[in-house]
Amino acid sequence: MKLAQFLLVSGAFWPLAHGALLGSTVTLPNGAGTVQGLPRNNKTSILSFLGIPFAEPPVGSLRWAPPQPVNALSPNPYNATEFGPGCYQSEIAAPAFGPISEDCLTVNVWTGAQDTAEKRPVMVWIYGGGFQFGASNQPNYNGANLAQQGVVLVSFNYRLGVLGFLGLSELDVPGGANSGNFGIQDQLAALRWVKKNIAAFGGDPDNVTVFGESAGAHSVGLLLSSPLSDSLFNKAIMESGAYWDSEHGSIQNFTQTRTKGSALMQKLGVSTVSDLRALSAETINNAALWNSSTDPAITAFAPNIDNYVVPAVPAEAFNRGSAQKVSVLAGFNADEEYLFLSRAIPHNTTAQFRQSAQVLFGPQTVEFLNFYDGATEAQATQSALDLDGDLIIREQTFEALDRQASVNHQTVYAYYFTYTSSYSPVAAHTAEVNFVFGNLGPNPIFGQTPGPSATDFTLSRTMMEYWTNFAKIGNPNNVSAGLPVWPQYTSGNGFNFLEIGDNITAITNPYLARFEFISSLRHNGSLPITWRNEFDDN
Q1: Closest by alpha carbon to 297, among 536, 538, 531, 534?
Q2: Is 371 left (phi over 0), alpha (psi -120 to 50) or beta?
Q3: Domains along the chain?
Q4: Which of 221, 227, 427, 437 counts the most CB atoms within 10 A of its CB?
Q5: Known catalytic residue at 231
Q6: At what angle do helices 182-197 and 215-225 cross, to 10 degrees?
Q7: Which residues form the Carboxylesterase type B domain (predicted)?
Q8: Active-site residue among 155, 214, 219, 250?
Q9: What is the pLDDT of residue 406?
Q10: Rounded CA separation 146/359 (Å)
Q11: Of residues 239, 336, 395, 499, which has the active-site annotation?
């Protein structure tokens, strides 16, 4: 009887919820136009819409200006069958995946919805690359596999480097936005586009999860701490990053940003913004390339505290409980430092490491050496690398997730990625991304490795299930699917992390004491290490 009543009620209400059948042609609301995407894939039934402009081209007078929404697509219908070009970036740091252009602010959508009224959960990806390189068209970011898990997957491009993060007083908007965070404003504009348009692709604008890795995770941390992101997303995932303070991470203060902007103008021989805008994007980009002599986590032109998009050091928002009130899934990898040059502390010899520790940590040296052993040269080298990974990624990610739970009183899930295989031999920075997206192609950080095994594919399916479960309901667990239980994070020394490795199991935070040591120095202002982030004019 109950089943019959349920079916009757369901049938009665279905016509009210029924929308238009979803095909490869989608009409956007408010007369914005029509997009023509790729037809459903025969194997996956996923529709792909690629390279849709979400903002006017940031060229001419719109270079170094807040992104302006596209009111009407041109041409109409708009061909959304190919990725748009990536934004200008440092090709010294990493080769671009395809063409680059100033006209780069495009969004991509993958959906398996059959009907526009399905309201599938939405996941919005923000790529990493130190805010200097990266693009949404990277092969390992293809969203079709995640879309098969019942979500609508969105990715987009945002401005990078000097074209995304130049700060000059002449670029400030009186009574409004200070300059320097145009790339983050692009991210906000893309999220507003999702809020306005995603229902046309079968997505739920009121169930949006923003997620990213490295600089993408740093971006999520910034968005969590920004009042401008209010109501734009409902959950957040941070993979290896969070952004924390302006002394021991790449976020810069207001003065630093203006100083670097002025130095760039002097280097280019111009004195006005008009003259600067008259130069080609290539000329400007080449004058401000990321420089391999500085640590890759610290760049000349990157997000800054602008008193608008980022009104204060992000740590302050988390510590005072004013970060966005959303559930968070976050974690870090065992060997984050694999990609980074060790610049935290000299370590060529055991004696040099210990002497440097004494200079840097003074009365805390003994405690420091308890956590970062330098008894042998091998240990000194490993400890220097561990310190890099902790300062750049691990400890700040932990602080963010811990404060979101303990101060903001939100639901948090924490992970520790340790998995290795012949395909993915080190649990390095970025190593988890291919598994999250289900795209187990070549990983450039490892060079040539054997192809993925059945075990690799099994892990990938498990991670996709966890990530999409969280996007759907704010909880990665699905008992019916037989997944190992992921415990909710709580402060303290309990089994509050999930280790994702050869085995998937609940663990205590393996670095808790080490993190508490760093945190105590950070919060009392005595953490002695400052990353190199000076403007480099070589």
Answers
A1: 531
A2: alpha
A3: 25-532 (3.40.50.1820)
A4: 221
A5: no
A6: 80
A7: 25-508
A8: 214
A9: 94
A10: 49
A11: 336
